[in-house]
Amino acid sequence: MIGLTSHVLDLSLGQPARNVAVRLEAAAGKTWRLLTSAFTDSDGRTGDLLAGAALADGVYRLVFETGAYFSASGRPSFYPYVEVTFQVTVPGQHHHIPLLLSPFGYSTYRGS
Questions:
Q1: What is the CATH number of the domain that holds 61?
Q2: Domain range for 35
Q3: Sequence-ordered strand ranges (E) for 69-108
Q4: pLDDT averaged over every residue in the chain
Q5: How many domains, in total, are found in the chain?
Q6: Which residue of 16, 28, 37, 61 has the smallest Cβ count within 10 Å?
Q7: Residues 6+ apart with CB under 8 A from 81
Q8: pLDDT surpasses 80 at 70
Q9: Strand-by-strand arrangement of the 31-39 sheet
């Protein structure tokens, strides 16, 4: 399986984070180039952001619009965006990036 998926969990509610806007960007010198964007589904998942394609060698980032997510439910938050920057060194692999989220903190890791 190839591609890129993500899963966002709202730890403060103990449930998936629905309707979080997510952007995938690729490093282009000192700037970033938008590759695709999506919203998390009712289970907090994006599905395959690459529609079955593989990421090439390079540096990428997922940008989660966390401030808008918390604001939509009337909750204050400290981080308006969470940017997870990662490097692909072996093209053709599946990459899964979970985000564990609360209004005042977050954690991420390379999932499977």
A1: 2.60.40.180
A2: 3-108
A3: 82-88, 94-102, 105-108
A4: 95
A5: 1
A6: 28
A7: 63, 64, 65, 66, 67
A8: yes
A9: 31-39, 21-28, 58-64, 82-88
